[in-house]
């Protein structure tokens, strides 16, 4: 029995070929006139931003589910055939073999995955290590300092603050400082 509504399915691929499968699948959908059946192809990834030991910003991308690709499609005999015979696709997750069609993801599962991608582990920082800043609120208001490190979990920064005759390392909220 064919369903004629678009739903999300999970494809199993060769690990490391997820992006190639995405390209191949979108290309095949276009060349075979299946754009009305195969809509979106998604490789769930997240970006992680960090600071290297030398103080440079580093961005790395990680696949959330290595070896898997999501596809939003209308499951028909033809679309199913095209997807499962795309180079790099080893099969559908949730298919019981022997030509059976797979079960789609539940809407809440799709929402969780897509939201996780949108809210990836990124921390946009308006400051960098070495920046000179002024503390604009809190108990150290009015002092200036230089950013030495970040505490992303606490949304704070470590400063070497100029306290008159001495420099002290302090931690303040990232919303308590402004660039000089």
Automatic annotation (TrEMBL):
Pfam families: KOW, NusG
GO BP terms in the entry: DNA-templated transcription elongation; DNA-templated transcription termination; regulation of DNA-templated transcription elongation; transcription antitermination
UniProt xrefs under SMART domains: KOW (SM00739), NGN (SM00738)
Entries under InterPro entries matching the protein: KOW, NGN, NGN-like_dom, NGN_dom_sf, NusG-like, Rib_uL2_dom2, Transcrpt_antiterm_NusG, Translation_prot_SH3-like_sf
This protein's record includes keyword Transcription regulation: yes
Gene3D superfamilies from the UniProt entry: 2.30.30.30, NusG, N-terminal domain
Domain NusG-like N-terminal positions: 5-117
Entry keyword set: Transcription, Transcription antitermination, Transcription regulation, Transcription termination
Keyword Transcription recorded: yes
Domain KOW: 126-153
GO cellular component: cytosol
Protein function: Participates in transcription elongation, termination and antitermination.
Family: Belongs to the NusG family.
HAMAP family: NusG
Protein's UniProt name: Transcription termination/antitermination protein NusG
Gene this chain is encoded by: nusG
């Amino acid at each position: 029995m064919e369903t004629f509504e678009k739903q999300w399915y999970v494809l199993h691929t060769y690990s490391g070929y997820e992006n190639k499968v995405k390209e191949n699948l979108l290309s095949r959908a276009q060349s075979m006139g299946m754009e009305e059946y195969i809509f979106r192809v998604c490789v769930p990834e997240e970006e992680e931003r960090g600071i290297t030991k030398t103080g440079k910003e580093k961005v790395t991308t990680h696949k959330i589910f290595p070896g898997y690709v999501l596809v939003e499609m209308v499951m028909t005999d033809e679309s199913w055939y095209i997807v499962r015979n795309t180079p790099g696709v080893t099969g559908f997750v949730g298919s019981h073999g022997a030509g059976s069609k797979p079960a789609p993801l539940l809407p809440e599962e799709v929402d969780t995955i897509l939201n996780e991608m949108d809210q990836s582990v990124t921390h946009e920082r308006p400051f960098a290590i070495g920046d000179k800043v002024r503390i604009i609120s809190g108990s150290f208001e009015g002092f200036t300092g230089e950013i030495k490190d970040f505490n992303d979990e606490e949304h704070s920064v470590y400063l070497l603050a100029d306290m008159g005759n001495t420099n002290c390392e302090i931690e303040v909220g990232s919303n308590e400082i402004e660039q000089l």
